[in-house]
Amino acid sequence: MSVSFQDLVNQAKQQIREVDPAELERRLTEVTILDIREADEFDQGAISGAHLAPRGILESVISLHVSDFEQEVVVYCGVGARSALAAQTLQLMGYTDVRSLAGGFNRWKDEGLPWRAPESLTAEQRARYSRHILLPEIGEQGQMKLLESRVLIVGAGGLGSPAALYLAAAGVGTIGIVDFDVVDASNLQRQILHNVDRIGQPKVDSARETLTALNPDVKVVTYNERLSADNVLDIFAEYDVIVDGADNFPTRYLVNDAALHLRKPVVHGSVFRFEGQVTVFDPYVGPCYRCQFPEPPPPELAPSCAEAGVLGVLTGIIGSIQAIEAAKILLDIGEGLTGRLLTYDGLSQEFRTLRVRRDPECPACADENQPPRLVEYDITCAHPGSMARIA
Amino acid sequence: MPATIRIPTSLQGLTEGSSEVEVPAGQVGAAIDDLITRYPDLGERLLGEDGKPRRFVNIFVAEDDIRFLDGLETTVTDGQVVTILPAMAGG
User: What are the residue ranges in chain A where pLDDT is below 50?
Assistant: First the structure.
């Protein structure tokens, strides 16, 4: 005896329960909704909050979406036929409160109920980011999150170069870059955003050219200006994470204090000769820069890289670690460096982790309700010679 | 076995190039004093006029900042490492 598809659907509908679109709409937030259509159908529009669980793999993925066999579940497809079969299968598996959406997504739309066209990656993006998508910690959802993220890089120099390159390659959708310097031949030993053809150009223009060529998905926003108490809050407000690759103490304290105002996480990196440091300052969660170093050193005790030198590739190591930390914050994965300072010594080839703590008497972050006044230290003081740069 | 003080590269010019200096175990303040006795130019880099660590230098015993332990009275045991960590701003 043969049975047609319609026969199967009719039999299933006798064994399952259905729910009308209007009733489901009233209880949207209380029910787990599974869209059992194929991914391309889902991409073209779906009920808000629905999880994609294609019929072909429903049995194997249902536990990812529904942990309790008594949980209230509604399944839907285009017209309510495939979902009737899906509901029947879930009942067989032991799920006790499963209903099929009567008339499916078509009726839902016909009744004028709200739905969304979920954003999804294009075929090109799926290819470009395939190694990310393969990682369970990222996947397609994580990649879309990166594409919607906004990171500000302070300084298009030694640290900012690798950080910006890797974050752009990773598909961070908007990358802001603040720097008011121009490309100089002495930068090229470490500042890999730039090249000999760009000498004399503003660093932010050079950076935009390099990053856009690497990944056209990325919108590069440039600020060819010095970060100051007057502009820092307006600039920072536009971003999710700040990557601090400045080359002077005044800017670093300004970054810290502004981030406290706006509660933006700062991925801090610094280098000197063969040594580097990385940490994350998460406002009011972990320590801030002033918890660690309440005051900048006097100029005579704070030689800059311009005076003391820095191994070029060291900035590549430290800036790349900053990119990892920024990506982790955006994706909300892993264990960040909040409260930990990672130090690296290129000569001994050793990494060490030190605990850094929030200072209950910190002049900047002790009182959440009183963020610090934005102070601009005399930049010529901190950097005798080649001052007033953020690079 | 003595304790070891790690000297950052920015200060190694004041320790005749040494990256590590062995000091007797005891209190970290005594260990730092011992270091300064051997390399007097380090004094103003590490300690202020009040004798306390300067505000742009952190001193760690093992993994912990002595400011959150017992300051210069923090105990350093045999074999432990004291890390001097100056603020650095290079980028």
Answer: 380-391
Helix axes A160-169, A203-214, angle to 10 degrees: 30
| Terminal Cα distance for chain B, rounded | 38
pLDDT at A375: 82
A265, HSE (Cβ side, Cα atoms, 13 Å): 22
Which chain B residues are closer than 8 Å to A310 by Cβ?
A: 90
Count of positions (residues) in chain B: 91
Q: What pLDDT does residue B55 have?
A: 93
A354 Cβ contact list (under 8 Å, min separation 6)? A340, A341, A343, B58, B60, B63, B64, B65, B83, B85
Torsion of the alpha carbons at A155, A161, A163 and A164, rounded to the nearest 10: 90
Q: Is B59 on the interface with A (CB under 8 A)?
A: no
Q: Which CATH superfamily is domain B3-86 in?
A: Beta-grasp domain (3.10.20.30)
* B86 vs A contacts (CB less than 8 Å): 297
Give B88 to chain A, closest Cα distance, Å: 6
B45 inside 8 A of chain A by CB: yes
- Given a cut of 80, whether residue B86 has pLDDT beyond it is yes
CB distance A359–B87 less than 8 Å?
Answer: no
Res B4: pLDDT: 97
Contact (CB, 8 A) for A24 and A74 = yes
Closest CA to A279 of A322, A234, A225: A322
Spell out which residues of chain A touch residue B9, defining contact as CB-CB under 8 Å. Answer: 272-275, 345, 347
Task: Give chain A positions within 8 Å (CB) of B83.
Answer: 343, 352, 354
**In whole angstroms, what is the distance from residue A250 CA to residue B29 CA?**
30
Does the pLDDT at position B1 exceed 90?
no
Q: Would you kindly state where each structural domain of chain B is located, as residue ranges? A: 3-86
Q: Are A355 and B58 in contact (CB under 8 A)?
A: no
Going by the DSSP 8-state scheme, the letter that residue A298 receives in this structure is P
Of all residues in chain A, the one with the smallest CA distance to B83 is A354
Write out pLDDT tens, residues B17-72.
999 999 999 999 999 999 999 999 999 999 999 999 999 999 999 999 999 999 99
Predicted pLDDT at B18: 94
Query: So what's the pLDDT on residue A300?
Result: 75
Residues 6+ apart with CB under 8 A from A372: A257, A260, A261, A290, A363, A364, A365
Global model pTM greater than 0.80: no
ipTM score assigned to the predicted complex: 0.95
Task: Determine, for residues B90 and A304 on separate chains, whether the beta-carbon distance falls below 8 Å.
Answer: yes
Q: Where are the beta strands (DSSP E) in A10-144?
A: 17-19, 32-35, 51-52, 73-76, 98-101
Q: Are B90 and A158 an interchain contact pair (Cβ–Cβ within 8 Å)?
A: yes
